């Protein structure tokens, strides 16, 4: 991530060295001026050092400006890359990662934690480099000016380090608490806003406020503790500095009274000290800053350490497969979700030939949706194989595979964009004509043109502009445009009433025509159309056959069908 940034970093450090050199030279000139011009009252002795001082100040300002701007550019660029890197990584993570982490907490990691590191990167880069060089130069100048005074100062310098060390552990732990609390606050806000209807309908406002206030109190405590620690450290450092300055003045007064030193030298030395302490202080403080940023970094590393469940195999990205016919086979497939106590699928075997409709049904939690996750290769099976046209799925480049196998998920997924863009994401770059054709095939053209801005109407995931059935037809249009040989439909009618369901049956049939379709559903309306029905229960395939045969068999399928017919009759 730091590739290409390192040479700019060298530039920053170079500017810092030059800046410190300029300031050291200015201090020495100040001593000169005091002894030769001020004390003697000689204007002649003033001009030359004054002109040099001015020249040095101008050069110092230019170098300071260049170094400061460059340092911010380098560190902000680093942070930008870090954020993109983490984001890219998160986008590859498997579904269970998102089920186990609260969304708000992930948001806070991608924003707040990255900012914590940003602070360290900015202050670290500018701060450490400039503090280190300044400290070295000023220390060298101090020794050159009066070594005995410098020695007295440096005897006391380790006190700064001791103070910083004492505080570092506390600062890190409080920063960690703060970051965790920040994630919790974001999570509560995000969850509450997402659940506003439930909150308002059931009068849960007070309960939600209490939830927020609990997390906010933890955050408040951490923030106050952190401020207290920093204040205490700052004040302690002030006291240490005062001790150092008094020691130097004491020794200086004694040396002047002995005639071993001039007032100019003492004043220059005192000025040098006022330059020397800030870098020493900030070097010590850097430890505290790093301690605080480490808490944020640890949370990011936790995300980065989570491996994607699947990745392109070596060589698979170069493999040219051509568009498959859509022959899907599962052989003895078993799968258990990472960390789950039981297997979700056990020795599942079935095939779907090109153009066939295979329906997978069964009770809730049977493992039906898991089949869709394996077909899209969100996960690889623990045992057995999933093949497309006889080729194991992991031999296809992931991106290509997902062009060949299209998923129509349970929840209608909407992009924050126009209706047109929402359909076009099925095939980026599709012409307006193709988009409209897809919408017509999905019976969506009519309601889209009735929208205020037609295909250019803006929609978003929370938009109440479109009904569930209309959103589902939009998703069908997207799938039509994608034109994949294999289609996986996961409960396409869930959440739709009988009328809306009836309205999507025809578009669905059009979409399925000529494609291998694997439909996961409780709704057995389309079951008579299926070439094969699989009944899954607790991860096992318990029955398979055509609708009429399974009904005649009188087993689980007949029972599921019967209970559904009863529900329809009752409704
Ligand atoms: N991310 C996960 N981590 C652990 N277990 C999971 C995860 N997702 C699903 N499961 C478990 O795997 C089993 C099969 O789940 P799956 O979602 O495939 O069932 P399903 O038949 O589609 O259910 P439904 O009809 O209710 O959608 C269930 O016991 C479920 O609890």
Observed structural traits:
571 residues, alpha/beta, ABC transporter transmembrane region fold, Rossmann fold, disordered C terminus, binds adenosine-5'-triphosphate, nucleotide-binding, AAA+_ATPase, membrane, ABC-type oligopeptide transporter activity
Description:
The chain has 571 residues and is of the alpha/beta class. The chain contains 18 helices and twelve strands. The chain is elongated and about 120 Å long. Residues 566-571 have low confidence and may be disordered. It has a six-stranded mixed beta sheet with strand order 6-9-10-3-11-12, with helices on both faces. It has a four-stranded antiparallel beta sheet with strand order 2-1-4-5, with helices on one face. Strands 7-8 form a two-stranded antiparallel ribbon. It has helices at 6-38, 44-91, 95-100, 103-145, 147-156, 158-194, 196-201, 205-257, 263-305, 368-375, 398-404, 419-424, 432-441, 445-449, 468-482, 498-512, 547-553, 556-570, and strands at 328-335, 345-352, 357-361, 383-388, 391-392, 405-408, 417-418, 458-459, 486-490, 516-520, 532-537, 540-545. It folds into two domains: 6-305, Up-down Bundle (ABC transporter transmembrane region fold), CATH 1.20.1560.10; 328-570, 3-Layer(aba) Sandwich (Rossmann fold). The longest helix is centred in the middle third of the chain and has 53 residues, at 205-257. It binds adenosine-5'-triphosphate. Adenosine-5'-triphosphate (ATP) binds at residues 95-96, 99, 337, 340, 344, 364-370. One of its GO terms (cellular component) is plasma membrane. It comes from Streptomyces asoensis. Belongs to the ABC transporter superfamily. Siderophore-Fe(3+) uptake transporter (SIUT) (TC 3.A.1.21) family. Residues 328-563 form the ABC transporter domain. Pfam families: ABC_membrane, ABC_tran.
